[in-house]
Amino acid sequence: MTTIHPALVLTDEVAQALSDGAPVVALESTIISHGMPYPQNVEMAIEVERIVREGGAVPATIAVLDGVPRIGLDAQGLELLATHEDVAKVSVRDLPYVISRGAHGATTVAATMRLASLAGIKVFVTGGLGGVHRGAQQTFDSSADLTELSLTDVAVVSAGVKSILDIALTLETLETLHVPVVAYGTDEFPAFFSRESGHQAPMRVDTPAEAARFMAAKWGLGLTGGVSLVNPIREEDEIPASEMDSVIEQAIRDMEAAGVHGKEATPFLLGRIVEITGGASLEANIALVNNNARLGAQVAVEHAALEQ
Ligand code: PSU
Ligand code: MN
Fold this sequence. Notes:
eleven-stranded mixed beta sheet; alpha/beta
């Protein structure tokens, strides 16, 4: 029996799946409103939902619309997030602000995890996690995605983190925060566009069933907090790290020159990388999200079977 928080509005389909104990996969919305240009953003959102369904799970894209936290969206909701000018980027601390003002908000990994967890969803698929930014020793810019991973019992499937972040510091922080980082089918921690980051992942699983057993073992022991399941982009879709390095350095220089920081930093860098690569990074980004959706659906199916 799942208890669902009364402030949330679920679609009938998601509510039914959760009450049946059927597999559900949460999906974030910052990636739609602030992570990709239109119309690729809404096309990606629709395709990811299709892939999750094809994998035997129910997709639940999460956002705040008119001040209401929504678990599951219709086509109109996805289109609004992809096109509306006034959609705030909402991490956990911003939730009360958009809710109390009746505003629209696209949820980050952190806020999506929290809302998913309040709804009783255990598996969440995204593209890349936020983390510790390069230069954080000076700026203290470290994403609330990391603290949320330490608090909330949701498994997050991502393609690792982009090297716009300091990957070594991000991995150190996840260790401090008790967050298991589990690589899927590889020993190496993946770097989003690239399969390799030069950093080892501390743990590895090779099947969705193993991932589901890992989740059950963690939460069964009362070890609260998330699981970061990192899934490398497929070889045929990757952009080698050697090609991305100079692009990312350029994007960071442009960000510094433009005086951008804080919550605008990640969206700015993502947008610049798309521009500098002439759209090649966008193709890779879409491919890796789809790849994560395939894995996330399988993990949700296996985990739901364990819970029956
Ligand atoms: N990384 C990406 N694409 C994204 C994001 C990160 O490759 O769209 C988004 C996610 O929603 C993530 C957020 O949770 O950026 C992190 O933002 P910040 O660094 O401000 O916490
Ligand atoms: Mn930040």
